[in-house]
Amino acid sequence: MKVLLVNGSPNMNGCTYTALREVEKTLNEAGVDTEIIHVGNKDLRGCIGCRQCKKNGKCAFNDLVNEVAPKFEECDGIVIGSPVYFASANGTLISFIDRLFYSVPCDKTMKVGAAVVSARRGGCSATFDEINKYFTISGMPVASSQYWNSVHGYTPDDVRRDEEGLQTMRTLGKNMAFLIKSISLGKEKFGLPKKETWIGTNFIR
């Protein structure tokens, strides 16, 4: 079992990373393999709606998105972490997950998703909500914790002093490991839920 942890901060070892590491350590203790992918400092453009991915099975822009795509297909869960910028996720991260979720053709049903956000003070709830929408449109169960998955601080040392925030990260890791293992057992015994043929409407009457 494997979980990808996406660091959407330009700071490789900053506050977001500190939170993700707490989740990672707990997942590892539960026997789940992990990999942290640093995204926030990369030169990544947004989706241009060319739809070439629907023909070629990968994004037209051959960058980190296509490197991560096979890992996303194979993983059992993904944790997406971001700092808060103007009550929103980092723009580079959004460009990355827009293209990753849209271009990867695999069925994401029952992969477990979780959002982790870091702020000096405010904007966590809006950013948390923004990231969770990628999971809920993809049939992915969302791992929860004892509080919304956020830490507070201006520096990594500040985050390390956020005892409740770190406990929230550890609880998230434990809950995510349990959910991934439970889903694996459920797949073996019951299989995945049967899907209906997709119905798309454009609100044109």
Q: If you had to describe this structure to a student in words, what would you say it looks like?
A:
This protein has one domain: Flavodoxin domain (Rossmann fold). The chain has seven helices and six strands; from the N terminus they run βαβααββαβαβαα. It has helices at 15-29, 52-56, 64-74, 91-103, 124-136, 156-160, 163-190; strands at 2-7, 33-38, 77-85, 88-89, 112-119, 150-152. Strands 1, 2, 3, 4, 5 and 6 form a six-stranded mixed beta sheet that branches. Strand 1, helix 1 and strand 2 (33-38) form a beta-alpha-beta unit. It starts with a strand and ends in a 15-residue tail after the last helix.
CATH class: Alpha Beta
Give me the CATH fold name: Rossmann fold
Structural class: alpha/beta
CA-based gyration radius: 17 Å
Task: Lay out the secondary structure.
Layout: E1 2-7, H1 15-29, E2 33-38, H2 52-56, H3 64-74, E3 77-85, E4 88-89, H4 91-103, E5 112-119, H5 124-136, E6 150-152, H6 156-160, H7 163-190
Parallel strand pairs: 1-2, 1-3, 3-5, 5-6
Antiparallel strand pairs: 3-4
